[in-house]
């Protein structure tokens, strides 16, 4: 067990810095006698005098001067450790609100959240599934801290993170499924399942909307369910088609042109959270699993 406490080293440094026991006591909010007792105890432990008292001034000895750099380093490390421990304690108990576009691969999201919660086991996560402009609204309102979507509000840190390929898809029993070299104009004769913009303040139509006969739903998974039940065709992300094709018998249409649509999803978070440990970890996980990739 160490015989010298951190408080004794603090008292030693304070006497050096302020030139006397009384001044050190004022700086550390302690009495002069408390500082004097700490220094005497420290000198007894190290076996050498640390100060020469000249009048009312305490002058550090050559031996004391030799201990000063290590003493300062010790106190600095102790203060940093204390600050980090307190900050981390607060960090792991806080909540994190995330908005993720419905087109983002759910399997990748699950892996990312799993790794995040392994490092921050006490983190409470609120996950919002959004479509088009809704993510931007939640960020602007302060409802979420982090978002991944195709539409990002101005003034936020953003980086290109993921490209999702969309295919016009239908059930294998649908009349369009067996046709070759389908023109986009021919799709006007069939019902299209459309994912609505979830924005409350503005709605932005996106993608091919060439048919007037539409069934509008609120998520990519709901659109896939409608296609599975032969309610029409829809533009669905590759990952969703791959996950459901064998079971739900979804097939991409054989279009003559415009076979795929690419949607760029961007990662963003509030500028004030740039140094936040949880945010840094989350951002790093998105880079690790989907940075600048296609799916």
From TrEMBL:
GO terms for molecular function: DNA-binding transcription factor activity; transcription cis-regulatory region binding. Residues 4-61 form the HTH lysR-type domain. Keywords: DNA-binding, Transcription, Transcription regulation. It comes from the Bacteria. InterPro entries: LysR_HTH_N, LysR_subst-bd, WH-like_DNA-bd_sf, WH_DNA-bd_sf. The keyword Transcription applies. Gene3D superfamilies: 3.40.190.290, Winged helix-like DNA-binding domain superfamily/Winged helix DNA-binding domain. CDD domains: PBP2_LTTR_substrate. The keyword Zinc-finger does not apply. It holds the Pfam family LysR_substrate. Belongs to the LysR transcriptional regulatory family. This is Transcriptional regulator, LysR family protein.
């Amino acid at each position: 067990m160490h015989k010298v406490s951190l408080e004794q080293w603090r008292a030693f440094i304070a006497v050096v810095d302020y030139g006397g026991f009384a001044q050190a006591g004022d700086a550390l909010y302690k009495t002069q006698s408390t500082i004097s007792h700490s220094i005497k105890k420290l000198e007894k432990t190290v076996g050498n005098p640390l100060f020469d008292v000249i009048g009312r001034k305490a002058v550090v000895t050559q031996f004391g001067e030799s201990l000063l750099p290590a003493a300062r380093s010790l106190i600095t490390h102790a203060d940093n450790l204390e600050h980090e421990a307190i900050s981390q304690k607060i960090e792991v108990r806080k909540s994190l609100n995330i908005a993720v576009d419905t087109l983002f691969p759910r399997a990748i999201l699950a892996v990312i959240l799993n790794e995040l919660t392994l490092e921050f086991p006490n983190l409470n996560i609120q996950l919002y599934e959004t479509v088009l402009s809704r993510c931007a609204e939640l960020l602007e309102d302060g409802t979420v801290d982090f978002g991944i979507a195709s539409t990002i509000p101005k003034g936020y840190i953003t980086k290109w993170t993921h490209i999702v390929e969309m295919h016009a898809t239908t059930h294998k029993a649908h009349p369009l499924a067996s046709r070759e070299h389908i023109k986009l104009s021919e799709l006007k004769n069939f019902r299209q399942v459309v994912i609505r913009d979830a924005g409350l303040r503005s709605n932005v139509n996106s993608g091919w909307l060439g048919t007037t006969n539409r069934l509008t739903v609120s998520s990519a998974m709901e659109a896939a369910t409608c296609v599975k039940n032969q309610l029409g065709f829809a533009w669905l992300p590759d990952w969703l088609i791959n996950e459901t094709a064998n079971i739900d018998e979804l097939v991409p249409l054989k279009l003559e042109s415009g076979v795929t649509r690419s949607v760029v999803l961007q990662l963003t978070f509030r500028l004030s959270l740039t140094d936040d440990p949880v945010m840094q970890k989350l951002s790093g996980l998105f880079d690790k699993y989907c940075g600048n990739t296609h799916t």
